[in-house]
Amino acid sequence: ERERTLAMIKPDGLSGNYTERIKEVILESGFDIVKETAVQLDAERASLFYAEHSGRSFFDSLVKYMTSGPVLVMILERPDAILHWRVLIGPTDARKAKTSHPNSHKSYASFHFSIRAMCGVDSEKNCVHGSDSPQSAAREISFFFGDVRSDTVEHDE
Ligand code: CMP
């Protein structure tokens, strides 16, 4: 069944000029980009978006990172979009994404190309975000795009 998820290219992904390559991977992986918009988050909006992490030691640093430049948010759609996008971006810690190796049985299950392996740096600067459940996908999509449940893919003419 077709499903939607919220994908985000974080400030380091945008400033590092990874956007075009990431979009190619998205389209090659069978997603439609239903909507996209670039936004500059302020501390209040970034804190609200990551409210579930507000008690964590890394929270202030995360807000600083996420407000350091614009982000590109996209609604992606395909069958099982939430899980597929999470697999495609790889582990939260981009160092793990980079060191997964086909001959290392511990990480064998997660060995594949991942976007974070391509453009992430560490567990904070991991260059992309993806919703982790249907509930967060719904919340995160409406956070950036409002009520778009019946909107369909915009094709460029
Ligand atoms: P994301 O998948 O967007 O969800 C929460 C974000 O918090 C995560 O990516 C990272 O950018 C950041 N984050 C998660 N864990 C850590 C950590 N241990 N140290 C610093 N930042 C983190």
Automatic annotation (TrEMBL):
What are the binding positions for ATP in this chain? Answer: 10, 58, 86, 92, 116, 126
Using the record's annotation, list all stretches that form the Nucleoside diphosphate kinase-like domain: 2-154
Ranges in a coiled coil: none
Keyword DNA-binding among record annotations: no
| Positions of the catalytic residues | 129 (pros-phosphohistidine intermediate)
- Keywords from the named record: ATP-binding, Cytoplasm, Kinase, Magnesium, Metal-binding, Nucleotide metabolism, Nucleotide-binding, Signal, Transferase
The reaction(s) catalysed by this protein are: a 2'-deoxyribonucleoside 5'-diphosphate + ATP = a 2'-deoxyribonucleoside 5'-triphosphate + ADP; a ribonucleoside 5'-diphosphate + ATP = a ribonucleoside 5'-triphosphate + ADP
Q: Which GO terms describe its molecular function?
A: ATP binding; metal ion binding; nucleoside diphosphate kinase activity
GO biological-process terms attached to the record: CTP biosynthetic process; GTP biosynthetic process; UTP biosynthetic process
Q: What is its EC number?
A: 2.7.4.6
Q: Which domain of life is it from?
A: Eukaryota
**Is the Cytoplasm keyword given for this protein?**
yes
Its family remark reads: Belongs to the NDK family.
Q: This protein is called what?
A: Nucleoside diphosphate kinase
* Protein species of origin: Oryza meridionalis
